[in-house]
Write a structure and sequence with these properties.
The protein has a single domain (14-72), classed as 3-Layer(aba) Sandwich (Rossmann fold). The chain has helices at residues 14-22, 41-50, 62-72, and strands at residues 33-36, 54-57. By secondary structure, the chain is of the alpha+beta class. Strands 1-2 form a two-stranded parallel ribbon. Strand 1 (33-36), helix 2 and strand 2 form a beta-alpha-beta unit.
Length: 74
Amino acid sequence: MSSSPMFNMPEMDGITLVRRVRGLPSYTGTPILILTTESDQSKKDEGRSAGATGWIVKPFSPDKLLQIVAKVCP
């Protein structure tokens, strides 16, 4: 059984990416979900203040992901 590859963003973290995307006029209303291993409330608050629509902590079930996507993408 092989493990899933781990991907990290070498140039910036996810919260910085959200800030930059939110700064682009075409993406101001696009839902953005952060998928992370971070569960600390201060990080979640930082993500929300950057413009993230939602926060999902890994690992998560497919049902949980579908539930959250349905909630943020009417």
